[in-house]
What we know:
With 793 residues, the protein is an alpha/beta fold. α21 (530-542) links the parallel β24 (524-527) and β25 (548-554).
Amino acid sequence: xxxxxxxxxxxxxxxxxxxxxxxxxxxxxxxxxxxxxxxxxxxxxxxxxxxxxxxxxxxxxxxxxxxxxxxxxxxxxxxxxxxxxxxxxxxxxxxxxxxxxxxxxxxxxxxxxxxxxxxxxxxxxxxxxxxxxxxxxxxxxxxxxxxxxxxxxxxxxxxxxxxxxxxxxxxxxxxxxxxxxxxxxxxxxxxxxxxxxxxxxxxxxxxxxxxxxxxxxxxxxxxxxxxxxxxxxxxxxxxxxxxxxxxxxxxxxxxxxxxxxxxxxxxxxxxxxxxxxxxxxxxxxxxxxxxxxxxxxxxxxxxxxxxxxxxxxxxxxxxxxxxxxxxxxxxxxxxxxxxxxxxxxxxxxxxxxxxxxxxxxxxxxxxxxxxxxxxxxxxxxxxxxxxxxxxxxxxxxxxxxxxxxxxxxxxxxxxxxxxxxxxxxxxxxxxxxxxxxxxxxxxxxxxxxxxxxxxxxxxxxxxxxxxxxxxxxxxxxxxxxxxxxxxxxxxxxxxxxxxxxxxxxxxxxxxxxxxxxxxxxxxxxxxxxxxxxxxxxxxxxxxxxxxxxxxxxxxxxxxxxxxxxxxxxxxxxxxxxxxxxxxxxxxxxxxxxxxxxxxxxxxxxxxxxxxxxxxxxxxxxxxxxxxxxxxxxxxxxxxxxxxxxxxxxxxxxxxxxxxxxxxxxxxxxxxxxxxxxxxxxxxxxxxxxxxxxxxxxxxxxxxxxxxxxxxxxxxxxxxxxxxxxxxxxxxxxxxxxxxxxxxxxxxxxxxxxxxxxxxxxxxxxxxxxxxxxxxxxxxxxxxxxxxxxxxxx
Length: 793
C-alpha cells in the first residue's frame, strides 16, 4: 500500500490528529516495526498486553503513524499522525476492506478445520510460471491476520489466496466483509475449535458464512457434512464437489487421504480458473511437504538454527527474520537465502526490499544461493558471499566457520536447503522431541485467564523446562511479559543469562557455593534458613552489592525447605540488621493441591502462610512485597490463594489435574521406522525372547529409541503402543538401550514413516498412568541426546 494517513482516517471512519505521513506497511506487533519509516502501527488491546503502551518506544524508534482507540496525548509526539477510532481491530478490518477493491485478479478464500494451510501452499507450488500469486503468510487466518494479509497485497496479483479461520460464533461474518472472495474453498469439518460450538454442523454453518456472496465454491465431497450442507445453503451458486478418490493425481508423492484431498482441491481451483491443466498437473510430482511452522534447533558449535525452508517469499522472510531476532540473544545473525521465485516483483525492487529487511533486523552476514541473488549482490551492505547452487555451497563449506551464530535457512524448494540443515544441526539422531511454543503460549494464556487483574506469573523453567528446553522456553516467556523465571540451580540461571535472558531469575535451590556466581549474573536466591540468609548477606557485603533482592521460603507443611512459625520473629530481627538485602517475594509450597483428599490440609497451609507472611509484610512496610502460593493445580483449584503472584509449572507444559480439556499438548516424542521384518510363528523378538510370536506371523518395525533415550523399559511387551499412521502399534518384546520393536501387523506402514511415542493419540499422562508415576518424571527423563525441535507458526 502507499497512502496518506489522512486518507486512511477517512477510509476507516476515524478522526485524524497530528502530522500527516505516507504509510507503506501496517503492523499490530511492536516487535515487527523494524522498518519504522512508512510503518502504521495499530494499537490493539489484548488479553495480556495493550498496544498503546508501545507508542512511546515506537515513536523513539521512528514510527510516525498510529491507529488508536485509547487515550493518547498526541502533543507528546509532534512529528506523528494519529487516527482515533472506537475499535482498533474494526478499523484495521475496514482498512483492509477498502484495499480489497484494488486487487484486480481473483481473490480465493480457503477455510475448513484441517488442511487450509497445506492447500494454500500447494496452490502456490502448482502456480504456472509467469502468474503473479499472493498467499497469506503462514497461518495469518485470524481476525487480525486476515486483514494484515490483504494489506500485504500490491493490487496487481492475478491470484490472491487468503486463509481464514475462526474459533467462535460470529467471527466469519466480519472476515467475509473484508475478503469478499471470488472463489471459495472449504476443506473439511473436523474437531479443531469445537469447544465454542454446540455441534459440528453449527461450526460448519459458521465457516460457510465466508462465502455469503461468493459465486463459485469448491468443497470436499468426501466430508459427509459438507456434502449435505453446501448444496442446501448455496443452491444458486456454481458448486464444485471434489472427490479425491476420482481425481487423476498421478505423480503425487504423498499417498495419504489428507494429502490427496488437499492436492485435488488445489488442482480443481486451476481448472475452474481456466488454466492449462497439463502444465499445472505437471507440478504434482514436485509438491513438497509444507513446513507449517518455523523450526528452532540447536546447531553445531553453539549455533541456533531457524529453519523456514520451502517458504521463500518476501512476506514470510520478514516474519522469519523477526523470529530470528527474537531468539538470537547475543549471537550474530546469519541468513542463508536462495533466489526468491514468483514474487511478482522486478528483481531490482525485490532484492532491494530484501536488503532493507536484513538491515532492519540486524543481519550481519548473508550467504546467497542462486543466479538472481548472485546478480544483485551489490544491493546488500553486510558481509556476504554467493553461490550459484546449493551443491557449490556444500562443496566449499567449512563447518568450523559457523560458531555461536543464529542462522536462518530460507530456501526455495528447488534448492533443497534440507541438505544444508543436516550439516549445520548439532544432532542428527532420528528420534526428536517436538516442542510447540504456540501451544505453550495458549496454556500460559489459559492460566492467565484465571487470575485477577494485575496478578503476576512466575514461570518454572527448571530441569531444562521440564525436559522441553530452557532458553527457547525462557525466551518465549520473556516476550510474553511473564514477571519472573524460576530455576533449580544457579548454573541453569547462568546459562539463561549468557543466552541473553534479562528478566528476573529466581534460584530455588540456592547454596552458598554458588552465591558469588549468582551475584555475577544477577540471580536472585530463595532463602530458606538463617544460615542461608547469613551466608548470602556475607557474600553481598564482600562483593559490595546493595539493595539486593531475596525470596523468603516459608514451610507451611511440606517440610522440605523453609522458615517455620517459630522462626519468623528471629528472621525479622536478622533482616533488619542487613540493609543490603530486601525481600522481593515471600512464598510457600503446597504439598497436595492436586488431590481433593488433601483439600483441608491445603487450606490449612494457605491460612498459615497468610498469618506468617502478614507478619513479615508488616515488619517491612517500606517495600511492596509480592506473595505467592498457588502452583498450576492451585491456580485452578484454589483461587483464594492467588495473593500477588502465582507459580506456573507443569500447566505451562500442557498437564492439568482439573481441566485438561482447556490445555494443548506441548511436546511430542517422535521417531521413524528404520526396518520392517516379517516374523514367523514360533520365533521371538528382542532380548530375553519375551516377544513371542505364537498364533500368527507378525510384521514388526524397528524404531531407533530405547531406554537410553528415556523410554522406560517397563513399557515393554505391549504395555505401551506407539502411533503409526493413526493406528496403535504395541511394543513387542523388551525395549533395548537404543531401539525397540513394535507390532505393525495390519497397519499400512513403510520404512521411514514417522511414529509417535507420546503426543497426539498417545498422551504423556496416559503413559504416566501405565508406569504408576507422574508426567514430570517422563518429561524430565528424555535424554539430552534426543534432539529438541521448537515450532512456532
